[in-house]
Task: structure prediction
Amino acid sequence: MRISMRWISLRLRLMLVFALVALAAAVSASAIAYWLNRDAVLTRTQNAALDDFRKSLQDNTGSLPLSPTCPELQDAADRMAGTSQKYAVLLIGKVKGGGSCAAPSDRDLFTLETVPKTLVTAVNRERKVDDSNPYPYHLYWQRITLDGKPYLVGGAKVIGGGPTGYLLKSLENERADLNSLAWSLGIATGLALIGSALLAQAAASTVLRPVQRLGEAASRLGEGKLDTRLQVSGTDELAELSRTFNRAAASLEQRVEELSAREAASRRFVADMSHELRTPLTAITAVTEVLEDEADSLDPMIAPAVQLVVSETRRLNDLVENLMEVTRFDAGTARLVLDDVDVADQVTACIDARAWLDAVELDAERGIMARLDPRRLDVILANLIGNALKHGGSPVRVRVRPVDHELIIEVRDHGPGIPEDVLPHVFDRFYKASASRPRSEGSGLGLSIALENAHIHGGEITAANSPEGGAVFTLTLPRDVSATGDGDEDGDAAKDATDAKDTHPKKADGKGKKADTKGTKADTKGTKANAKETGNGGKDGRGPAQGGAK
Result:
């Protein structure tokens, strides 16, 4: 395909231009040569025949009486036709006894009807004699075609009362010579065209070879090989273009190195900061849990402050955990721990762990198996469903369906939908649709983390508005992630999963149980029961991403 595309482009156009120029030049030269030779051949032939006819007419009719007999005219015509020019003769004159006689040398070929009327008129017309025209009659000629063959017809009237003579000379030999010349010129034109094509190929190769090398170098540069350089020789425009490419590649390499260093330093800073915050946050979290346990016995004046400290501590803990997860994705260290799961059971477990059973409708058949990372799938579902509950409208409908080798999960709410100007940014980190609401309950990273978890599976998440109303998030995953080569089932992946603070909902944590029991606050306040999960149990999601635009 690459070779064919190369021939379709500049190389073919160069060859076509060369061929067209050569063809135009060859055809023009051949046409000019043909017409010049044709004119020369015909002029030479007709001049020789007419000169011979004039002289023969004068010699053979000069001795005839003023009123010859018809046999005398016939003898004169036969003598005139016997010259080396090989033409037929027709003599017409007045004979004894009155009347006129037509004496042709070849009765089958040349008669008076053969002579064009215009030529007869011109020959018989008497012209006024003066200084510029010393003779009343002149010799006239014309080319005609008889039975598909070319002939020269000429005629003249003998001055002083003699007969009128006409000649008919065949131009068949001249036509054959001209046809042979035309074939020769045609062959020469074809050879010139072939030669021009070969020259065009050589010229195109010479011109396009540096361009081809430049294209290959640009392709390698686009693949990330920033050390690509071209070997430059010469001082022409292509050499200067190659030097410009080398300078641009060197500048790009330096710039990318600087940006990569800054990005790596930024990621290290975020990761180090997150790790450093985890130790004091652990202590603070333990204190806030104690304070929350004793909230009922605290002074009513300080209880709101304690509750604020508890909620903000949890929010900070979620933010740190999400930042650590984001740094894993940015650094490329996130791995999958694959397992065979029943998707319907997995979605049900996610909804049940967050006490969303009354607010979520599940449309999924049991037995739809998929090989994927259940923890990361739980993070994706928690963010999408929690986001729909918080910013959409109940009921939230979750639909699971297999399509070929893919798994499609749709999460639809019944809210007002997502504004069109917000749709392209719902997965951006910390994006807020309204500048007047810069603060939100979540970290602003939920949907972006969900999208990264989909990408690491080789899948995708899209956001749109349903024609029936409400927003629809569509998650597409391969049913067997290991088949795509993205899966990792070794010890390092398990270690990464442990270090990532497993967000798979488990009610083994005592505090989690307590939070789950404490109130129906789980439904109205964004699932307090799952406050410690990296995925935020739906507290981030579209909320922070949109700033409550919905």
Q: What stands out?
A: Confidence is low (pLDDT under 50) at residues 1-7, 435-439, 489-550. DSSP finds 14 helices and twelve strands in the chain.
